[in-house]
Every structure is written in structure tokens, then in C-alpha cells.
Write a structure and sequence with these properties.
The chain is α/β, with parallel strands linked by helices. The chain is about 25% helix and about 20% strand. The strands form three sheets. Strands 2-4-3-6-1-5 form a six-stranded mixed β-sheet. Strands 9-10-7-12 form a four-stranded mixed β-sheet. A two-stranded antiparallel ribbon has the order 8-11. Strand 3 and strand 4 form a beta hairpin. The longest helix has 25 residues. The protein is rod-shaped, with a radius of gyration of 55 Å.
Length: about 325
């Protein structure tokens, strides 16, 4: 069956047209929705058919096998042509003048839709839910796999339709539909913080360099002083004492016996009356007593000599009588 010789067949509406963007007809409001502009002959054919309102259509690109759905805004296009939003042409991979097949369909009312923004900028909007509700009022249906465009504040936001229920294509006219959001495509999960070790349990590798950097402790490297205030004859320096101690340790490790030089140095230190701590640890108590008695006798002899030099009242005796 033909309608006025234009090639409409059967009891349903199905026709091929060449598509062009809405900018060709100076209808910028088409970009904010999913409605197309068709020729007047399509209205005549649809009026003669028993179709459901509102009018919904299936758009198919046979070359790329892309499928989408839309509504109709007006019937003022030239014959053999339709005008559609540019974002819809991008979804279907259509160029200006490409052939698209249009077929009227009946879609169930939607109960659930899941959306995914392309960028996180959409979440920065103060009230994205209100903006989305306002934008979807210009849409008549949604199809799983499509990407719709939301214009707000002179900026375009693209949102993917991931899932729709109860079917892959739903009508959103005069229906209560539950909306869910998936994380944006450019969303990155925050990195988990690295667990820090307790302060008391630091790694062993970190302690080793710190221990090497600390100077070595050399005990009893000071200068000896006498209790009577007289200067000592021998004042060993820090380098000499440390060197002598190192030599003593090396000699003990090699032979296991103290050397003659080290024993003589210890003897001289004790005889000079210096405060030497721990030097008598390796000797017997009897030897230490003998050495202290000898040191006491040696200190008393110089005092007796000094006292013998001074002789009071050692002058001659004179008589007053003459």
C-alpha cells in the first residue's frame, strides 16, 4: 500500500531520510533535547494510522548498526529530509546527508535509569539533580548506550546511559523514574596511605648509619693533677693515651699477656701520685698496699730535706759584758 504515491508501506510508519544537524534550520533548541523535525508527509501518514501517543521513533544507521530513539517536535522539514540534534548524530556516527531509517515504536515507561558523567566537573555543580531534572524534561525517551548532552552555565556536560529498566529503551514522559549515578569516567580512587612504623620500632638499617656517625667513647683520657698543687712531670695527650690503649688491646688479643711497656707505664702513673681509676683492678690488694707505702715514704724524704735546710737561732752567741 502506498500513501499518495510516496512509498509508505503497510500499517506502520517506516521510512528512510537524509539527516542534517539542527543548525541547518536555525533551531538551536533541538540541541537540548532528543526531538527531531520531520516533513509534512510523515504527519499525514501517521495521522491515518492507529498509533500510540506521544509519537516515538526508532532511528537506525544500517551502515554502522547504531540504534537510538527519539521524539518529534515539528513537521516542517523538506521532503526526504529530517533535522536532528548534532549530539544524536555523533552517537549514531552519522554525517551530513547520510541515510537514516525512521520507524514508529511504542516504548514502556521507565522505572530505573543509571547515568555516568564523562568528567568530574558535573559533580562540581551546586545542584546537579535539579539541573538533570530540568534537562530531561526536553527528552521523551532514553536508550541504553547513548550519551546525552546537558548544557549548563555555557558549558556542555556529556552523560552516558549505562542501564535502563524495564527495557533497553524507555519512555520518560509523565513517569516516576529512579535515577542512579555511577562514578565519572575520569574518577580515580584516592591512594591508601602507607602504614608508618611505630617510633619505638624503627628499621635496623636506619639505626646503623646513625651509630656509625656517632664518635667513639674513650674513657679516662683526661690529664692527671696532683693533690698538693705541684705540676706533674708527665701529661699524656688524648691521642697518645688512646693510641697506647689500642696497642694494649691489640697486644692482649695477640699474645694474651700484658706487654712490658704497658706495665712500666702503669707503674710510672701510680708512682707520680695521679688519680688513675681502674688501673689496680688487675693487681692483688697486697701489691697495691706496698706501692702506696712506697709512695708515702718517697714524699716524706723531700720534706725532711727541706726542713733540715732551715735552722733557726743558728747565729753566734755574744755577751753584753764584753
Amino acid at each position: 500500500m502506498f500513501f499518495d504515491g510516496y512509498g509508505y508501506h503497510g500499517t506502520s510508519f517506516e521510512q528512510t531520510y537524509r539527516c542534517y544537524p539542527a543548525s541547518f534550520i536555525e533551531k538551536p533548541q533541538l540541541e537540548t533535547g532528543d526531538k527531531i523535525i520531520m516533513p509534512p508527509s510523515a504527519l499525514d501518514r501517521l495521522a491515518s494510522l492507529h498509533i500510540d501517543y506521544p509519537m516515538l521513533f526508532e532511528l537506525r544507521n544500517d551502515v554502522t548498526e547504531r540504534l537510538s530513539h527519539c521524539g518529534v517536535l515539528e513537521f516542517i522539514a523538506e521532503e526526504g529530509m529530517i533535522y536532528m540534534p548534532y549530539w544524536m548524530m555523533e552517537n549514531m556516527l552519522l554525517q551530513e546527508g547520510d541515510v537514516v531509517q525512521v520507524k514508529n515504536v511504542t516504548l514502556p515507561k521507565g522505572t530505573y535509569v543509571k547515568l555516568q558523567p564523562h568528567t568530574m566537573d558535573f559533580l562540581d555543580i551546586s545542584n546537579p539533580k535539579a539541573i538533570l531534572e530540568t534537562t530531561l524534561r526536553n527528552f521523551s525517551c532514553l536508550t541504553t548506550g547513548d550519551s546525552i548532552m546537558v548544557a549548563y552555565n555555557n558549558k556542555k556536560y556529556y552523560i552516558d546511559i549505562i542501564e535502563t529498566k524495564p527495557s533497553n529503551a524507555i519512555s520518560i514522559i509523565e513517569t516516576d523514574c529512579e535515577v542512579d549515578f555511577a562514578p565519572p569516567l575520569d574518577y580515580k580512587e584516592p591512594q591508601k596511605p602507607v602504614a608508618s612504623l611505630p617510633t619505638g620500632k624503627a628499621p635496623v638499617q636506619d639505626e646503623q648509619p646513625a651509630a656509625e656517625a656517632e664518635p667513639k667513647f674513650n674513657p679516662f683520657t683526661g690529664v692527671g693533677r696532683r693533690l698538693d698543687g705541684k705540676p706533674s712531670k708527665q701529661q699524656p695527650s688524648l691521642s697518645s693515651t688512646s693510641a697506647s690503649k689500642d696497642k694494649q688491646i691489640d697486644s692482649r688479643n695477640v699474645s694474651g699477656q700484658p706487654s712490658a711497656g704497658s706495665s712500666s707505664q702503669n707503674a710510672t702513673r701510680q708512682s707520680q701520685g695521679k688519680l688513675v681509676f681502674g688501673s689496680n683492678a688487675s693487681r692483688n690488694p697486697k701489691e697495691t698496699k706496698k706501692e702506696t707505702e712506697k709512695d708515702g715514704k718517697q714524699e716524706q724524704q723531700p720534706k725532711e730535706k727541706e726542713e733540715a735546710k732551715f735552722q733557726p737561732f743558728a747565729g753566734k752567741k755574744y755577751s753584753l759584758r764584753g
